[in-house]
Amino acid sequence: MIAPSRIADDLLPVGDGQEEAAQILTLRLGRGVFGIPVRHVREVLDVAPITPVANAPASLLGIIDVRHEGVPVIDLKQRLRIAGDDAAGSRDRRIVVLEIEAEGAPTVIAIIADAVLEVVEHDPAALDRPPSLGERWDDSFIHGIGRRMGEFMTLLDVSAIFGRAPFGQPAA
């Protein structure tokens, strides 16, 4: 076990004049903390009514209207196979609108976060590789593992999550 004094957070609140490339939006999905590079984040919205789409994949919850544009809303927890607390009724739940590259084109999607925490700066050199499990698993959607306030935080590569696997299928 590592003594708390040896655990140094490598994520710090963003101050003035810091470069966007080093900024991530931290959010909670289930019991885990995840980060998304700010360059992909268009905006964070309160939860709004989501219109279901007929014959949609299970991870596509439906669409919402964002500034007169229909935007698909994805259940990221399902897509990443994350079990955890269902915060469907939580007042902390938010919709995060992202702009990613999928199949070589800019694409706007939204995800549901159980809570949006803060924007922080990170040092890519301080991130650890995903752990070795002794078996094969696809960690290509993870930039690395960091720490935030004593908790582990997984920095996600959202373009890899949504741009590679067939939509509606887990990102293996």
* Total beta-strand segments: 11
User: In the residues, how many domains can be counted?
Assistant: 1
Oligomer kind? single chain
State mean pLDDT (0 to 100 scale): 78
Specify the biggest β-sheet. 6 strands, mixed
CATH architecture label name: Beta Barrel
For the record, what CATH class applies? Mainly Beta
| CATH homologous superfamily placement | CheA-289, Domain 4
Rg: 16 Å
Unreliable stretches, pLDDT < 50, 5 or more residues?
A: 1-21, 165-172
Kindly name the structural category: mainly beta
Separation of termini? Answer: 31 Å
CATH-defined topology: OB fold (Dihydrolipoamide Acetyltransferase, E2P)
Query: How do the strands line up in the largest sheet?
Result: 1-9-2-3-11-10
The total count of helices amounts to 2
Q: State which percent range the strand residues make up.
A: 35-45%
Secondary-structure element order, N to C: EEEEEEHEEEEEH
Q: Fraction of residues in helices?
A: under 10%
Shape: globular
Topology overview:
Layout: E1 11-13, E2 23-29, E3 32-37, E4 41-46, E5 60-65, E6 70-74, H1 76-79, E7 94-102, E8 105-113, E9 115-122, E10 142-148, E11 151-156, H2 158-163
Parallel strand pairs: 3-11, 6-8
Antiparallel strand pairs: 1-9, 2-3, 2-9, 4-7, 5-6, 7-8, 10-11
InterPro entries: CheW, CheW-like_dom_sf, CheW-lke_dom
Domain CheW-like: 21-167
Organism: Paracoccus tibetensis
